[in-house]
What we know:
Strand order of the largest sheet: 1-2
Radius of gyration: 22 Å
Number of helices: 5
Low-confidence stretches: none
Largest sheet: 2 strands, antiparallel
Number of strands: 4
Mean pLDDT: 77
Order of helices and strands: HHEEHHEHE
Helix content: 40-55%
Oligomer: single chain
Amino acid sequence: xIGLHGTASRVExxxxxxxRVQEVEQLSREARQQARRSVSYHFDDExxxxxxxxxxxxxxxxxxxxxxxxxxxDLPLPPTPDRxxxxxIPTTVRxxxxxxLVAESFLAxxxxxxxxxxxxxxxxxxxxxxxxxxTAGRSEFDEGPKVPRKRQ
Length: 152
């Protein structure tokens, strides 16, 4: 209604205020994600396995998923029952093996060996207008959740 009957300056002012509210909501979402990050674990009494549960902010979660994806690619494929190479292990088990490989690699090489590269890139899609005007807009991980805009 305001767009149809209000003045241009009034509509512009309301849109500016609306964008500010959106930015605050995105910042508070990021703060909630940071405050709620946690890892809990326990050992299963039946078989002694470690059971993990984690809550990570979107960016950290995407980094973990990318690390697992790269580690899965480096895992050897197990032989199938007919002695041919093939994906004989379910994806969930391969992810667990990849997590163990990531932990083993970090323990062997430490944080100093971590460096960027094409294999470790995480793609974020951002609207051109949001970048140009430094306003709220579409910003999301490739094949992942939306990313809150950080205040400069």
